[in-house]
Amino acid sequence: MSFHPNVKDFFDINTNTFSYVVSDPVTKQCAIIDSVLDYDPVSAVTFTFHADQIIDYIKEQQLTVEWILETHVHADHLTAAQYLKKQLGGKVAISHRISLVQETFSAIYNIDIDQLRLSQTFDHVFDDHEQFTIGNLQAYNIPTPGHTPACLSYVIGNAVFVGDTLFMPDYGTARCDFPKGNAATLFDSVQKLYQLPEDTRVFLCHDYLPESRDHYICETDIKTQKQTNIHIHTGIKKTDFVEMRQKRDTTLSMPRLILPSIQINMIAGNFPKPEQNGISYLKLPLNYFKAKS
Question: Which of 7, 20, 130, 280 could form a disulfide with 126 if both were Cys (CB 3.0 to 4.6 A apart)?
């Protein structure tokens, strides 16, 4: 079985998001992780510039898509999962805890949760620690909640894709103030990741380029995170981390695209059902987040 996947990153500077194509060099099977659908919030127009870069790469490399994986329900960008599935095939998958996110945000958006459950739009929901394959690559997930309740990290060969759980060591960790987020839970999740071999390659979903750096980076390793992550290196006490994280989160504004993103991403990147005029509409919960803003 293969142990060293080929990893190709794609960066969207508008949302500071890294997407990945992870492929088995032998069988040419691949997975797409954390794709981006471009979205203009002023005009509410979507376009596929970044997704098309992924499609071009997959066709050039003659790869076959097995999986379209989401590490969590993103609050900062729309997923291109359905567009990519239509163009390339593959199963759209996420944690089974997506049901918690759907229940929470269905109440916020006043969406019929019973109807949503009946029309589950993900092709596969992973059980905790479920094993799967990408060609000859052995893979499994590690539940890493805290940022959201449905966060998963995907271990694929000698690499782990951690979503928003960790950032580069000079930037720290994800926020925990979204509904059902929890800083103590995030601390425990990171400890799970730190049990991986120290040479495990760590691929991040975002890089926000701190002032100390002049270029974006998507890859580090477990050893470096354990030694130098500014929020959660070896020796940091859980109580100190929670206090820091909660204090820091009170200073953060809501992500610019959270309201359209969650609404689309929690149903696997599908748009809301078109109305009689053939147009899909997003909902905005007026003044719901007033206290936060």
Answer: 130
- pLDDT, one tens digit per residue, over 182-200 is 999 999 999 999 999 999 9
115's CB contacts (< 8 A; 6+ apart) are none
Query: How many Cβ atoms are within 10 Å of 155's Cβ, its own excluded?
Result: 19
Residue 146 lies in a domain: yes
From residue 64, how far is each of 21, 32, 271 by CA, in Å?
11, 10, 25
Report d(CA 250, CA 66) in Å as an integer. 40
Would residue 276 count as lying in a domain? Answer: no
The CB-side HSE value for 228 (13 A sphere, CA atoms) comes to: 11
Report the alpha-carbon distance of residue 59 to residue 259 in Å, rounded: 33
The overall average pLDDT reported for the chain is 94
**Parent domain of 171:** 6-265
Q: CA Rg, the chain, in Å? A: 18
Q: Please give the pLDDT value at position 292.
A: 47
Q: How is residue 199 written in tokens?
A: 């040479």
Residue 119: pLDDT above 80? no
In a domain, 288, yes or no: no
Q: pLDDT-based confidence at 3, cuts 50/70/90?
A: confident
Structural domain count of the chain: 1
Give the amino acid at 142.
Answer: I
- What is the model's pLDDT at position 115? 78
| CATH (domain of 75) | 3.60.15.10
What is the rounded average pLDDT of the residues 39-46? 96
Distance (Å, whole) CA 175 – CA 166: 10
In a domain, 272, yes or no: no
